[in-house]
Design a protein that fits this description.
Blueprint lengths: L9 E4 L9 H14 L6 H4 L7 H12 L5 H19 L6 H11 L3 E4 L4 H10 L8 E3 L12 H10 L6 E5 L2 H9 L3 E4 L8 H6 L2 E2 L3 H4 L11 H16 L1
Parallel strand pairs: 1-2, 1-4, 2-3, 4-5, 5-6
Helix pairs in contact: 1-4
Length: 242
Amino acid sequence: MSMLPRPPKAVIFDMDGLLLDTEILYRQSIIAAAQDAGLPIGPSIYEGMLGRPWVSIAELLRDHYGQDFQADLFRAAWLAHFDRLTETELRLKPGVVALLDLLDEHKLPRAVCTSSAHFQVEHHLGALGILDRFHHIVAHGDYPRGKPAPDPYLAAAERLGIAPSDCLALEDSYNGIRSAASAGMMAVMVPDMLSPTDEIRALCAVVAESLDHCCAFFGQEVAASPAEVGRAIKDTVLRRNQ
């Protein structure tokens, strides 16, 4: 796995789809709300909503369904579905606790940088027992422009007191990577619902397979995944047969 251009002095985490396995829940709830309202919906809608602040999502919905579309009412219905799902389905993404433990060992400051509201961050991370493991929370209302603008990540760096170029930003969405990269950070994509495009790869310092693999940035060896083991065996067999 490729290493970073320099050792990070701080780590900034996105929340949904990166710390929390919530993007699939958002997709399910958006589709359910659309079906309740008899609205056609496809990947261009729910994938286009990933990593965007609500103002931008509302614009996307009105562009798709018409300028008289009642976006706020749709949001209320979608979040009602989402809240019901999170009561039983809220989970941490694999590798979160191990990476936080490693950052504790290295005494590295860290923050959450999200488009979600503060009450959502406090509820979700608090329910899963990791809220107090972050030194700062930067959420909706803490910056003038949301992702993909650099403002959220610049605000996080300022609160941490670390130069943006020395911050590692971990993201799963395209707009999150655009935001972190435009802030001048070492942007690393850990794909969740979306695979990196050529544009996104060019903005990333690294594309990591998982948060477990991000431990390698701090000198920790990571066990190979089954897929990697399979590739290694295949490569060995091919070399022997040459």
